[in-house]
Amino acid sequence: MVRLMLLERLLQHLPQLHTVGGVQAIPYMQVILMLTTDLDGEDEKDKGALDDLLAQLIAELCMHKKDVSKKNERSSINEVHLVIMRLLSVFMSRTKSGSKSSSESSSLISNATATALLSMGAIDYCLHVLKSLLEFWKTQQGEEEPAATSQLLKPHTSSSPPDMSPFFLRQYVKGHAADVFEAYSQLLTEMVLRLPYQIKKIADANSRIPPPIFDHSWFYFLSEYLMIQQTPFVRRQVRKLLLFICGSKEKYRQLRDLHTLDSHVRGIKKLLEEQGIFQRGGTVTATSGSALQYDTLISLMEHLKACAEIATQRTINWQKFCIKDDSVLYFLLQVSFLVDEGVSPVLLQLLSCALCGSKVLAASSSGASGGGSGGSSQPSQSKSSSKKSKKDDKEKDKEDGTGSQEDQLCTALVSQLNKFADKETLIQFLRCFLLESNSSSVRWQAHCLTLHIYRNSNKSQQELLLDLMWAIWPELPAYGRKAAQFVDLLGYFSLKTPQTEKKLKEYSQKAVEILRAQNHILTNHPNSNIYNTLSGLVEFDGFYLESDPCLVCNNPEVPFSNIKLSSIKVDTRYTTTQQVVKLIGSHTISKVTVKIGDLKRTKMVRTINLYYNNRTVQAIVELKNKPARWHKAKKVQLTPGQTEVKIDLPLPIVASNLMIEFSDFYENYQASTETLQCPRCSASVPANPGVCGNCGENVYQCHKCRSINYDEKDPFLCNACGFCKYARFDFMLYAKPCCAVDPIENEEDRKKAVTNINTLLDKADRVYHQLMGHRPQLMIQEQKVLASRKELLEYDLQQREAATKSSRTSTQPTFTASQYRSLSVLGCGYTSSTKCYGCASAVTGHCITLLRALATNTAIRQILVLQGLIRELFEYNLRRGTGAMREEVRQLVCLLTRYIQMCKSLKRIANTVCFTRC
């Protein structure tokens, strides 16, 4: 009875807590908690007292009010409300003691608390508070924390911290002795997440308590909290509650992934709309061009990489998202044509994950792993291995089920894409990524994607794709070596797709026409005989005698490599915190590694900023102290004493000039007041005033060039020579040279571009005349070499004939003449031609590859023979090109001569050719 009386009297003073604050309310709540410890569940008075207590506590929270916008503002009443919520949480988390009465009492209090909270709408109340706090945390996320160089010391109380358990742990109170409610927003967020979890847990264990209802809003806002990087302390509780609501890890991951993907795709669309790229009626239109700024591309890459991470690890969730939103794949396909080529691989990866499935991607990236252990094994090991094998079988069955579902989704997504994509879009995709791209990895990505689009399409769509590729076929000579993947797909599709005889004849005719055209170019090319002769003597990877520049042959795929900054810089200027470097040319930079040696603890770098510029300047001093002309690439933070930092760029930058800025430092002020060493006589000199008493030198002058900075007493870098007395910096770039020009942004830039074009043309003309001057000498030297080889061969043959005393002298000249023909330089027959020999040679190889594939089909083989392919091969390709190329031609001829009538045709043509040549 005394407990009930005390409890009743204490509840009468509950409204007075509004003004005292949370700290003074905690002892009050501790007394209430103690008085409710031994309430009897079978006593009606105890039940009534508990119900009255819970009703008054919950009424204090004002859960019926929908406006909770001020709940995230710290005040005395809100602190008291937070303590009340923690008390209710303690009620629902009471541990069962050993005694039966305590166990029943704990069960009574937890069940009654959960029931009371449910009846008062606690679930909706917590949702409203979470929604209000979400806006608060988003605003906090946008604010960057200032990098403070020093912090004030916090006062420590001499007395021990008060006991606030179970509301706050002793360690927490000790760490926040000055203000327990300093992290009020964090504490409130934790409570509105913990209460619904406890309510659901109790309701699931007790059938008499109605189950709480978590609508779609709960899933949405909990998923939003998981995406905010500013709240890592609540991520665990959010994940715990969301997993508990979902019921299984698979459903939880799927829900989280779908929300994350939806959020990032909306972010991509919003970002592109700000740059003038809109999606209207499923079609993407660009109003302001596709040249996005680097900062925009970085934000775009962050969204795309977040999607790619989910698509790679949990492909089926990415596929379900694309099924749910049928505009995503077609949107990504169209965007891939409008953005920078550095973004294209990620877009192709997303499309491949959706249309190819995880098995195909894993097969292309993973290799075979190692096998088992030794021969002898213990019985325990055999038991564990049998258990493991059973587990593996279960996982395999699960993967098979997932794989079959992925295959079905791949087919559905390809059908979805075919429904939206028109012919023009597909042609643009094929041309852009299978022919125009200079990156072989991108072309192979597009190859894999196109192959699986074909395999998962119906018959009519397969025929359409094949017709589109044959429509692009006449453009092949313009792409040269880059068309290998395109030709591989074209041959495969042509064989796999059933066609009428008319179509087969049309395709065969197109293939033979391109071969004849390229053979004509190679035969009439000015350097044809020289190249043919050299190809029989040496192997070479380029055609260096060409006078007409080719953008395909002269743009090889250069891999990234580690380059020292000192080896590619032309000029350098310094400020007290910056190094401004002019490079020898434009470079594509993917990573910068900074190595710090001879580090002194007196002053260490805290922050490094990397800036770049791609404008051509006569002298780098034009860019010094002009921050508006620089673009910020990356900012990195260093720890004290760090000797190496890697600056990984999300997207490679194209730079002609670099600026490395040391913007913030760790400074030891005590060490800076110590004595310094005189740069002239090495005597110890006090830091203040910094003048050597022995020789009178200023100790703050540069130790390398003796320059004195009168504006700054002790600069980090010498603004004359760049010397740093606190550390030595070495920069390594992971980069490759590239071709880049100045952007044209105004009329002045346009005039500079015209002047630059004229200058480059004059320079190219001078270089061309220099090369033409070397050409006659080169041809004379080559003719001398070939004539010497001819004499050598004749002498060897004469010696062989004399040694064997052979009487077959009449038949020998035929053999030797064909040998001489292949070695000697005949009449060149120069004709003016602007066709690239390298591209024509590459396309000829592609034609042979395609024709070899087509010749495996009996119907096509007969059509090819009737079109005179055998004569074409005998007259041109069997004697020209590299050894590997000639071997392919021989194999193609063998394919074409499998039937007797074809053999007769071959014999007749061979005889005709031999008689013509003799």
TrEMBL record:
One cellular component (GO) term of this entry: centrosome
Organism field: Cyprinus carpio (Common carp)
Record-annotated E3 ubiquitin-protein ligase UBR4-like domain positions: 729-778
Name of this protein: E3 ubiquitin-protein ligase UBR4-like domain-containing protein
Stretches for region Disordered: 367-404
MF terms in GO: ubiquitin-protein transferase activity
Classification lineage: Eukaryota, Metazoa, Chordata, Craniata, Vertebrata
Compositionally skewed regions (Basic and acidic residues) per UniProt: 390-401
GO biological-process terms attached to the record: ubiquitin-dependent protein catabolic process
